[in-house]
Design a protein that fits this description.
- It is built from 4 helices and 4 strands.
- It is of the alpha+beta class.
- The strands form 2 sheets. It has a two-stranded antiparallel sheet. It has a two-stranded antiparallel ribbon with strand order 3-4.
- The longest helix has 10 residues.
Amino acid sequence: MKTYYDNVLKDENTTLHFPSIKNGDGVQKLVASMPDVPALGEWELHTLEDMRWNDNHQRPIKYWSRNIIKSMRWLMQQPDYAEHLIYAPQRWFMSDKPLKRLYTETHTADWWWETQVRRDTPG
């Protein structure tokens, strides 16, 4: 498996770039460092049969994942992340005149505002 990742991560083999992962050892260390928390659910292996990395790498793409809802619940319960999480939409403005709306992160976009304050039931 290490050689597989080494080959995939070579610049000539992929248009994907992972600056923090240089080779297969880096991938294995990253995965090994992930917490094995029962609340996150089991790891599941998936294969994308109809997709390939590129012309030089024709094997189907395989990847591991966990249940995204369980993972998000776990992340949101971690005290270390509390100061970095945003739970409500915000509208930011530049101090220039005339006032100009500033869009920088997902929570500053109209979509979040409209989605969070939307009521799906009448009344």
